[in-house]
Design goal:
The chain has 10 helices and 11 strands. The chain is of the alpha+beta class and 318 residues long. Bound molecules: adenosine-5'-diphosphate and magnesium ion. The site of adenosine-5'-diphosphate has 12 residues, from helix 1, strand 2 and strand 3.
């Protein structure tokens, strides 16, 4: 049975590219660049709460890194360093090797140094802390949305929720939609390049981890504004094409979690500029606007304002 130190040496000690000192001492040493502020965020994934304990270890490794990197993307920053604390029920070396491989693949892909962590025995629990950099005073916070701003979302939120529904036998998806939904669920892509590109245009931003409508409320609260979403503008066709009814598509889009797409606001004068940041691989959709009156409503297909419930979207359920 490998010891804690064997596991660290074999699976957790990686070469670093932009750190003064990586794994092996009591602390890692990093030197943030001049003119930048440090962004720090921690995210924990608990077996049974955030993932099924039998989830593929490599995918889980990728996701543990990716959800952390996504928080840096959500501020317009560049992730630079990450530390991983994990509790493992047993020292299953194959599992650890696959998990470490997924985690380090994600780090390498986004040029992040894995600089340390902690390894202990306990119920399966994965916790990473990521450190990012953003040029001083350029971070995009949640409190900058202003009445009249457009509301935009990247990519196709709802796919991950649809994939989870399939795994829970709530829906039966067919290929190739199934693979796309499972990829969204298991291999989320932190939108780092987009976040950086939005530094000078987005007035407020966050990454969607708990559902578009619920997360939008965080921006509304922090900015002390309200919002109107246009039902006709919501990107539903892909979800519909995957086999979800209109009601199911709306529910996955508005209240499904785990998307890690960026939700942001920007003044209407910047529409052309923002549209130029979109690509076939990562579309950007304008889904509504910020209002001075508080609250979140959706303009339905007849242009009637419908309040969106504070929690969940049961009235949309099929
Ligand atoms: P200490 O007892 O001083 O806390 P540890 O024995 O826990 O140190 O860890 C030894 C080294 O291994 C440290 O540099 C620590 O950052 C690193 N380390 C431990 N677990 C992990 C892990 N899961 N991922 C990366 N580095 C790790
Ligand atoms: Mg320790």
């Amino acid at each position: 049975m490998p010891s804690e130190f064997d596991l660290i040496r074999r699976h957790f000690a990686h070469l670093t590219r932009h750190s003064v000192l990586g794994v092996g001492d009591d602390c890692a040493i990093v030197a943030p660049r001049q003119g930048y502020e440090l962004l720090v965020s921690t995210d924990m994934l608990v077996a049974g709460t955030h993932f099924f304990a039998d989830t593929d270890a490599e995918a889980l490794g990728w996701k543990t890194a990716a959800v952390n990197l996504s928080d840096i993307a959500a501020m317009g920053g560049e992730p630079r360093w990450i530390a991983l604390a994990l509790a493992l029920p047993q020292a299953d070396e194959d599992w650890v090797a696959a998990f470490a491989n997924g985690f380090s693949t994600c780090c390498a892909h986004f040029n992040v140094d894995w600089i340390g962590g902690d390894t202990t025995r306990g119920p399966l629990n994965l916790c990473a802390t990521v450190f990012g950099e953003v040029p001083t005073k350029q971070a995009i916070c949640r409190n900058g949305a202003r009445p009249g701003d457009d509301i935009w979302v990247s990519g196709q939120p709802g796919l991950a929720a649809l994939g989870l529904w399939h795994l829970k036998n709530r829906i039966v998806l067919c290929e190739p939609a199934l693979q796309r939904c499972l990829a969204a669920l298991h291999r989320p892509q932190p939108r780092i390049a987009l976040g950086k590109a939005l530094r000078r245009s987005a007035s407020a931003m966050l990454d969607i981890s708990d559902g578009l409508a619920g997360d939008l409320r965080h921006i509304l609260t922090a900015s002390n504004v309200g919002a109107e979403l246009d039902e006709a503008a919501l990107p539903l066709t892909t979800l519909h094409a995957a086999g979800a009814s209109r009601a199911q598509s709306l529910q996955c889009l508005l209240s499904g979690g785990d998307d890690y797409e960026l939700l942001f606001t920007a003044p209407p004068e910047l529409r052309t500029q923002i549209t130029q940041l979109a690509s076939a691989a990562l579309p950007l959709t304008r889904i509504g606007r910020i209002t001075p009156n508080l609250g979140l409503v959706m303009l339905d297909l007849n242009g009637q304002a419908q309040p969106l419930a504070a929690r969940g979207f049961d009235h949309f359920s099929a």
